[in-house]
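Whether sequence alone determines local backbone shape is best considered at the level of individual chains. Part of our work consisted of pairing the sequence of a single chain with a tokenised description of its backbone. This step matters because it turns folding into a mapping between discrete strings. For completeness, the protein is quoted in full, as a sequence line and a line of structure tokens:

_____
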Amino acid sequence: MDGFTRLRHQAAGHEGPLADEAQTLFVKPSTRQEIEFYTQVQRVAAEEESQGKDVEGDRLIDFMPVFMGTLEAGITSKVEETTQVSEELRKLDLESNKKDDEQPYLVLQNALKGFNNPSIIDIKLGSILHDEFTPQEKKARLQKVSETTTSGSLNYRVCGMKLYHDQTPDLFKFDKEHVSKTDDGYLVFDKWFGRSLTPTTVVDNFKIYFQHNKLSSIQQRILLENFYTRLQLFYNVLLNYELRIRSGSLLFIYENDPQRWEELNNEDQLFRQDFLGDDDDDDDDDDDNEQPAPLSAMYLIDFAHAKFTPGKGVDENIIKGVENILDALDRLVNE
């Protein structure tokens, strides 16, 4: 697919996500089910807004990447627009690629847009990692993964972590074999590292994530408390929706550039405000009015096996995972 480059940063997941040259848009091979879920979430959010239920942090859409639309390779005319589609999406040029003709592509605002040196962690939620459509062989494999990792014991598992730092932290409690360095100054903790974590060491892993950086102790404290607050709000949101999300993840991102923290006076907003398309009708406005990228963010991602399930109650499978992540962060907050 011409006009795209490989995504600059990724903590976990399959190969294949792309970005436009400006790293503004995130484009990945998707499924009709995932696209339908994003579309339904937008419809629900529109209904909530019409009813006056638009308090930031009270809705599921507040914790998801901005859905821009979909693309089909080789057929530029088949751009499927949403209410949030922007000029950036219309400018994309997809060249024909026969093997991709049947593959829909999901287009989101790049969650890493605006970060200079992001440190990221991908946390898969739930102990049940498959849905009713999963082939039996894959189902058995996923059940084994759950049984032998913190997916089974804690209803969440670290799938990958990428930290901007040139020094390796003290890893005497961990499996060092699955930690590597990149040429651009990152430490990469792969999925096998995450699978080796125990209910005890996973808390130590969060400590590494939030403290092995170039930030001051004050900035680290702000960071940790903001993620704890986001998780509390997200937990409450999950209690208001009847849905099932299998193999969904929470993505944590924070800025590991102390200069950006200082430029923003350590003011880390809970929710991202610099959305694409927000100022499409304000071309004459000064650039000074543009909102800066946040210093940290948290997103719920990966909805290939997600759907709304009216009448079936809340998703205890992922709620338990969020509870346990809150417990882990609570220990760090109170240290």
